[in-house]
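Record format v2
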Amino acid sequence: MSPSAPPAAAPVSVTVSTQQAGTTAGEVLRAAGVKDSAVARIGGQLRDLAHVVHEGDVVEAVPYASEDGRAVLRHSAAHVLAQAVQDLFPGTQLGIGPPVKDGFYYDFLPERPFTPEDVAAIEKRMEQIVRQRQRFSRRVVSEEDARDELADEPFKLELVGLKGSSSDDDGSSAALAGGEETVEVGGGELTIYDNLVGEELVWKDLCRGPHLPTTRDIPAFRLMRTAAAYWRGDQRNAQLQRVYGTAWESRDALKAHLTMLEEAEKRDHRRLGTELDLFSFPDEIGSGLAVFHPKGGVVRMAMEEYSRRRHVEEGYEFVNTPHITKGTLFETSGHLDWYAEGMYPPMQLDAVGDKPGADYYLKPMNCPMHNLVFAARGRSYRELPLRLFEFGTVYRYEKSGVIHGLTRARGFTQDDAHIYCTRAQMADELASLLTFVLGLLRDYGLEDFYLELSTRDPDKSVGSDEAWEEATAALQSVADASGLELVPDPGGAAFYGPKISVQARDAIGRTWQMSTIQVDFNLPERFGLEYAAADGTRQRPVMLHRALFGSIERFFAVLLEHYAGAFPAWLAPVQVVGIPVHSDYDGHLLAVADRLRRRGVRVEVDTSDDRMQKKIRSAQRAKVPFMLIAGEDDVLKDAVSFRYRDGTQENGVPVDEAVEKLVAAVESRA
RNA sequence: GCCGGAUUAGCUCAGUGGUAGAGCAACCGCCUUGUAAGCGGUAGGUCGUCGGUUCAAGCCCGACAUCCGGCUCCA
């Protein structure tokens, strides 16, 4: 996402001499010829350049263009934002203003929400503050003084209070949301930063720092958008107005970031879905419910066909289950206890007179249905692992504000499988499952993965400690064996068991959660699932849940954005377009197309009365992988000329050769 | 669900209280010879829906729907 960092030279590091003792970190670094240090690192702590050093201190430069340097300059930019807002809207109360990925934000409680015009004015005021070269001056304060100075800032006072009431850092972190709080009150002492013009105090804010020396040192920033945010991330708290900005070490870096955002916008699957005529979300159907048009439908078909083939090869068996069921099934599974509010409300059917009927629900998950397939007859250990697979469409009543194109929908199709195995088989099964998952994702063109291990949330889970530990250990060892980076996600598990999720990075470095693999001891229990073991006893199977794509719609969206609409030939809705140089050559291309179609290639010939150049433009915009152009030269030689999607060409290719070449390109899934 | 913004032709968007516009796409006609837009014409909109203010509403107000950006959520 971010522009590549400059060549990684080791940061300059200086040991403070006797003569330098009592000067500042900034002076020490300047003396060593360092000009691009945002702050200094001393004893592992980031400090202002104005920090007074002692003999023997090791002062390390922190370049603007480093992770820490950017965080500091963004934090300073957040301060300038807050100052600008309070200049323009006196009485606006301050929340928090931390640096975040690619930028910063500051939360405010203004008298009225900010308008776009307000934001433009705020940005202008920020530029003035930057030009004023205000000095950020650090001052340690007692809790009492802080309360006094911050009497008009109730949110800041709350932070002071939280700090005061907690005995250690862990306590204060737990009391606040997300680790952002330390920007205000972390560390050992309370500090206030004064903004000085000359010696005149023009603004101040409770802040741990560190900061750039002056506002003028903020190299490049821009305000991005406003949004609402709950105070300390809690829905029960006041709703604040958040202003987001981005800030960088140089104008070029800012420009590169904005260009990247434009690129991401061009790739947005909702935009491409319309442009390429792949799918839509008709209002008449309802929010979050997609229809796939023919071009989207054929891509989806290609995705599904390949997945089916691979599942057959891996020993999966295919089942089909209904979309709707009596509520008793979800009582058995526990969904109605745990997730009723995520489900569409029930419809009441079969009432007779005053006798109530049954509640029927749309299914939010496929697993209960698959359990019924397992339980349909007696099972033997000889059948295990039993792998049941289904493209199962599920419906979840997502809250209105969270719906987002195909990636967060209310109806979607999971490539869902449930594997029933013995405890002894579990480890091997998980290992081969992960290999299968990663291999399949690679086949679709994703290459760069890491894993996330979601473990138990004690408040939102069922089952014994021992079972959780066993399952977690099994997943952990599989994850370790994969050699992939593993990120812990404590408390992120589903209520019935821990999970590994595969995260994939796309072509422009964004990460998407793809496959999940979950271990479940709980549902087999609830459903009373059993198999006959070799010794004749009845045993309970372990159940593994897994979806490779997550949902087909979502995976479709991820691939669409990953490829920016330019699908590889095997997935492209139209793989080949024939373009005659003149309508006299339509027949030649129609014959070639006919041969290709018989070989399973999706091919069209553009026989419209547009001119050739226009046809090329149309095919190019439709992101068709191969154009076959034919004019007099080609027809005389029984040949065609290729134009590839990147604009390169290969002229006069004999038709026989061209057909084989195209068939090979499609079949190789290149 | 919450806060803010948006909704005008299939798409992208102009239109600040006085008889609805453009480009592209579609359709028709003429044209067509080598790698990203040939020319001309035709058709297409109860301006998201419902209600209100006004002599008059695409424009002002309200409710609802949908979308967008966040927050919260995400089995």
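Residues 580 and 587 of chain A are 9 Å apart (CA to CA).
The longest strand of chain A covers residues 220-230.
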